[in-house]
Amino acid sequence: MDERDLRLFIALTLTDTIRSNLGQIIKLCVSMPDKIKWVEEHNLHLTLKFLGSTPSNMIQPICTAIANAMNNRTQFIYELQGLACFPNLVRPRVLFAGASQGMKELQIIANHLEDILLPLGFEKEKRDFKPHITLGRFKTNRGKPILSDQLLKFIGSHKNTTFGSFTVENIILMKSTLTPDGPIYTPLYTQAFA
């Protein structure tokens, strides 16, 4: 990555209440024997599109593309519900909170972002977009992480737990600065919905 390049992504931010609710879930899991790198509560968000290393002179064209594509988008409700793992419970890489409402709307937005950013040189994701909030990433040390019985039961008992809902009013272009203490996220542009 060039020194002038920025690590960028497009995301939804969460309400303080939802971050706190998910933070409580993380606190309950920390004592379990599973090796997981947890997301700091203040950094919890929903990524719509990861742009990665991006030249700083691309910020304005990205903002313009987002504004043109999203200026008629209307607000909607997003409800978080359930815990699960990507790709599955047998070979877990990511522990996440899912959704029960607003998934279709977010999939449409994410697909639209893929289309409008392609001409700017950002490749489309190969996997289908599945809205989720990453809570932690499993650490591997040669081999596949295996869920402890304790965490497996915890995930099962929270399969239908609702963590809150909020009105999606905008999307944000974020800069991620990696530090030894974890990433620092800085909003660069906000596109409001009608």
Give structural attributes.
about 190 residues, alpha+beta, five-stranded antiparallel β-sheet, four-stranded antiparallel β-sheet, 9 strands, globular
What does this 3D model show about the protein?
- This protein has 194 residues and is α+β, with helices and mostly antiparallel strands.
- It has four helices and nine strands; from the N terminus they run βαββαββαβαβββ.
- It has helices at 16-30, 59-70, 103-117, 149-157; strands at residues 5-13, 36-38, 45-55, 76-86, 94-101, 133-138, 162-168, 170-177, 184-192.
- A five-stranded antiparallel β-sheet has the order 2-6-5-4-7, with helices on both faces. The chain has a four-stranded antiparallel β-sheet with strand order 3-1-8-9, with helices on one face.
- α2 (59-70) packs across α3.
- The radius of gyration is 17 Å and the shape is globular.
- The termini are far apart.
Task: Give the secondary structure arrangement, pairings included.
Blueprint: E1 5-13, H1 16-30, E2 36-38, E3 45-55, H2 59-70, E4 76-86, E5 94-101, H3 103-117, E6 133-138, H4 149-157, E7 162-168, E8 170-177, E9 184-192
Antiparallel strand pairs: 1-3, 1-8, 2-6, 4-5, 4-7, 5-6, 8-9
Helix pairs in contact: 2-3
